[in-house]
Amino acid sequence: MGTPSKPREIRLSTTPTPEALAELKLGDIVYLDGLIYTAREGVYMRALEQNANIPMELPAESAANFHCSPAAAINPDGSYNMGAVTATASFRFSKWIGAWMAKSGAKLIIGKGGMSAQDYKDHFVPNGAIYLTTVGYGTGALLGRGVKRVKTVHWNEELGLAQAMWVLEAEKMGPFIVESDLAGNSLFERENAKISANLAKVYEGTKPAVLKRFGETDDRSDELIG
Amino acid sequence: MISLDLIEKTAEVLMAKAAIEIPDDYLQGLQAAAEVEDGDLSSFVLHAMLENYKAAKEDGRAMCGDTGTPRWYVKMGNETQVEGGPVALEAALRRATAKATNGVPLRPNRVHPLWRTDHNNNVGIGAPEIEYGYEPGGEWIDLITVHKGGLFGTDYRMLFPSDGIQGIKRFYLDSLVAFGKRGLACQPAIIGIGLGGCKDTCMVLGKRAACLRVVGSRNPDPRIAELELELKELGNSIGMGAMGFVGKSMVIDANIEVGYCHTGGMQMSVHAFCLSSRRAVARVYPDGRVEHRTDPDWFTDYQRRETVEWEPPQSHEKSA
């Protein structure tokens, strides 16, 4: 059994230069500094389908879109009680991500589980953006520590706490892992390919169910997303 | 008579404990996994998680930002009496859930499925779920809260007797591999497997196997216990670890619960209790004592009874 080697750690601005993004390699560990905003289906629908004005200067203030609903509350005096912060699965937002990038200029999409290679090719590469995945996915307490303060919350009344646009001041917030690079390569897909090579052996001694399902596949290099 | 006020206060404490403190049995299981994990990225993830549990406890903040969907398992002795009766009890648990959601804070995950309306307190139609169990003797009440997370990692399938153990293994692997990719199941997890019952009870059994049994517990049927160990081993031999990276930590433990089913079928469900296995338990007595613990001790001999009439076993051995 080998001793696992430690990945490289990098500090990155939430308004990163193209050069800083080009430096990043799949599997690098990233810590973020600057403003981050949360935006998921609620924000996307409101901004893109209902054409509401985005209440921030994007991407000047922040080019970092976090697919997240924090465990947080707004106190009666208007102050914020920020607990843990964890991402939600990003593949579900594929429908909006291209239009959102075009509108917001986002360069960092942060979430859970990455997006499909097709999304990287169609939307991330042309927009010079990369995907950062959260770790675990449960490092909510560590990420919460990296939030210096909640700057503001937009659209809480319209969307509710979980879907609102939280604007967070990040200081060495992380860890995140570089899942896609500027060329659109995906760490998850690289790992999937390695694991798939072993699967036939693991499945020895099993057999397919007698009752099939419509749409069922026996190709286990396939994925559920996308 | 158990004080309603004490139930509500204890329930609030349990809500916070579940969200913040990783149970010892899961922590030890994850530490053991971290020691043998040799995949670079998987190993990094496991160590980050161990650090995260510490940070959560030190800061008194939830381990994970997705604090799941809080629910209650309530168990009572045959002689238990609660002040105000069952309706008051349910109201107290709903109040505790709402208060803790704002107090800890937890993420107010619960919304209406169609209108997506949100009370911002994890309470709504059918939420939190409150399920009941009873034990012979005793005047106590066990309050167990589980905040299971995850939209992924759970699946159900109608298998048949001819599918046999080979079919069980296939569906088990399919669930782990499919939801393990990209770490959608937030593994390594406690995998709960329900076998038999009807469709709905099969899901209930599997979920309880994942959430209400501790790591290291075994089913009292020796052949099922053997299958549990075999499935744990099988899951960890896939070659996949945390977040779907190359590695060998998928399963912290595999727990199987069974129920008698239709003679033609063999229902199977698979559930993953994630890296933030949130559960907390307390027993409240009529004299005001409150005993906290992490083992729900749900699956007693009585819960797994097979006979028409219940006869207590001669020597009571604590079962998982």
From TrEMBL, chain A:
Residues 7-189 form the Fe-S hydro-lyase tartrate dehydratase beta-type catalytic domain. Keywords: Lyase. It holds the Pfam family Fumerase_C. Transmembrane segments: none annotated. GO terms for molecular function: hydro-lyase activity. The keyword Lyase applies. Belongs to the class-I fumarase family. This is Fumarate hydratase. It comes from Denitrobaculum tricleocarpae. The lineage of its organism: Bacteria, Pseudomonadati, Pseudomonadota, Alphaproteobacteria, Rhodospirillales.
